[in-house]
Here is the input.
Amino acid sequence: MAALLGDGNLADGTALLAHLQNAGPEDALRHQFAHVLGGWDQAATDATWAAGTSPGTAERRSAILDSLNLDTATRKLFADRFPYGANIAPIVIADDWEEWRTEQRRHEHDFYWPHYRKFLLDKGWHSEAVTGLDLATEEVVRRLSDPTRGKAYQAKGLVVGYVQSGKTANFTGVIAKAVDAGYRLVLVLTGTTNMLRAQTQRRLDIELLGRENLELEISAHDTHGHEYQDDPDWLGNRFIRHGSRPSDAGFPDIRRLSTHAWDYRRLRQGFSALEYHRHDRSRRLFEPVNLFTSDARLIVAKKNKNILEDLVADLGRISDRLGEVPVLIIDDESDQASINTTSPKKWKADSRERTAINRLIGKLLQMMPRAQYVGYTATPYANVFVDPSDVEDIFPRDFLVSLPRPVGYMGAEDFHDFDTDPLSDNRGFSDSQERRHVRLLSEEPDDGELRAALDMYVLTGAVKLHRQRLGQASYRHHTMLVHEAMGRDTHREAAATINFLWNSGDYHGPSGLRRLRRLYETDILPVSQHSAPQLATPTNFDSLRADVSAAVGKISPPDRDAGPVIVVNSDPELERQQESLDFDRRPIWRILVGGNKLARGFTVEGLTVTYYRRTTAQVDTLMQMGRWFGFRPHYRDLVRLYTTEELHSMFAAACRDEEFLRTELRRYAQPIDGKAQITPRQIPPLIAQHRPDLRPTGRNKMWNARLVERSSPGEPMEPVAYPHPAGRNARRTLDNNKLWSPVLASAISLEEFKTVRVSSVNGAPLMQETGTYFDSKVAEVEHAEMLSILGSLHWSSPDTFQPELAWLSNLRTDQLNRWIVLFPFQTSNRGIVQDVMSHGPFSIFKRAWTPSKGSLRAVSESRHRNAANRIAGISTPVPDPAADSLNKPGTGALIMYPSVEDTSRYVDKPAPDDQITLAFHLVTPMSTMPLNGKLIKWQTRSSRDPMAVVVDA
Here is the structure.
């Protein structure tokens, strides 16, 4: 060990430690240390220095650091820079299964996996990453059913990765090992677009099948050539090579039933392509004598109803023999299209109504009893909400594998500063990821901001060319993504605007160069100097002038009339243009404008600058649209995200949700007394939701989900689903008002409660005379009494406010012990003032109801919310000494609005009590923050088995 690192004592290696302390993620020496330490982390237990510690454990890492004789500060540095080897191991939660992957079985028929492993190493993968891939894929394959098993068994599992983090490499490795083990039909279901399907097919053709399998399809008499004949990777011999035709070496050939150009097609008379040769016809196909002498088939199909119906029809013609075929189904983006999204209200008494793709996947599983189903996704929320008791569905009942964050990956957390107080804005480029990579936009689109993003795209391209000239890296692609909204018209308008800004940018003239110089000197240069000092970034903009000109020429060559933009959507008129978006066959230096076709699965190569404005209300959609996540070798420092403050905040919440789920999985994966704590069926699918307006997934994927708890420390809660005071609901409204009657009775004018008046100032300091003041009655209510009232209220929907109430009920008295209730008065000469439930008087507010009369549209007013926040001790930009004086530890604030419908006859005259809705807005102090940080909990509910899910509440 000492020989590898010099004298074996790094405590005095001042220069080395200084270098590692300042080294960026792509530093060569840092990578070398990671590689060496990773090898020691996974080394055999019998090594002398290992002191009997197990591989991949904290104890093993401690033994390594002890052997290196590191001091405390250096050990801390190593722990930060080189997390111990357990981080390359996946998190696994699995039911009991029959272990069949013995050491002999793992290597007895090895062919495709060792070739794939060598291919990745030759491609430049670090050995630690390949070791991690080996570990992760083995955890999946060993939990599939033994393909030679006499009794058929279907395993169903889910593999959870990060967005754009190498899930394709993982399932390629799983397929390689599965084919070696005896699986003879592999069906890969991709997303819903042709682009993603073709990209996946090509990856498997290059990295798994290789030249020898593909050459089986090439005929010397085919005058049209073959699909890869002009592909640069084929011509450059970059397709994997096995050394000979696999069957000549005694291993299975892999025959394709789909190609790069064509999705699966109905075989018609050629369905014999699905027939399997049996060496011994007296034995079944899955017996070793036949299994290991038969070829494998590969189908890569997009999740399209017509495609899958054709496949089901073809398989149906050999259904009597399908029971002998070991099948592996890989469902990429398994939370898209595969989930049954029909409402339970449409289910018949004896069956479920299913969406088309979900029904066809279920049909495939029924037809192939030896089929193993493995879903892959970065956003598993929809998958864990599937009813685990529905045997026909795709709930991962057998195993769930959560992949580790890969080395060199750039994800959502790399665009946020979670451990820094955002109010103390002393962060610089050296210690703030947000300052390095995020540029906030105004809420409304602004052409000046879009031009700045275009300028950044030009400059980052120029820096890439500069580094390439110096031989530091090669950049084949350089792209920018503009994603503002769905809709073809929006995309056309965006493309027109970008082309106009580009043509008027004067990138070769004085005004454009002045703009670029200023942006370079204030943004790119300082960021790169702090975060990537090992990469060449010229200190003088003039040294970059020639590269700027070259970058402009590559982005929009003078001989091309189309401009720098490619629009990527479902518009058939643009199909020819989209064909040019082929990262495999040609370098792409373009600006991509698009929507859903670029929002999931598809890898945008070379993506450096993103201009993103599209909003959504669900975490999985939001994260999947983060195409700027991924691997950015030798240009991580140049990555920029232009987005709004609101969207940036939403990504932060989504990132926290994602990390909380992984933390929960890691916690439950730890065995106790050598036994698993839970099985996948018992995984509490309780997903943290850090923003009430950002659901885990679409409502139509959550029929089986029930929100059990919602906490909102420092955030407002404003329920709106009150009974509409008409007909029989008038009685329910009156019952609610009776519950509030003691609070109404105790409300006194603020001057009597305190010697000052509650006030709020719209954007101006209180010491100025400008501002808005409001009178108010005030009541003080103990928390227990408030819970009694809130827990007895009628709502128009039975689930309304129940998750919030569950949280409020579990709070300790040191977290929340009293409430200040404000009854604000309208400003002078506005509205009616009257008694409510014989108490008062109170101001009556006009409020609009939804067309269905199921809820109010809104309740509170901004001029009152500032006061409520400060009463609860929440800092706001607007000072309010009067509200501050009402705050004490453990104080919540509630604003009560006695309201009538804005279209009722009581708008201009007193209303009876049963026509007045006592609507409220409340906020709790930060002392109510849950210790575990979980703000919202979801629980699945089984339609048939109420004990299927264990809830850790």
Observations:
- Residues 1-12, 753-772, 943-953 have pLDDT under 50 and may be disordered.
- The chain has four domains: 2-88, 133-216+249-343+352-402, 436-655, 715-928.
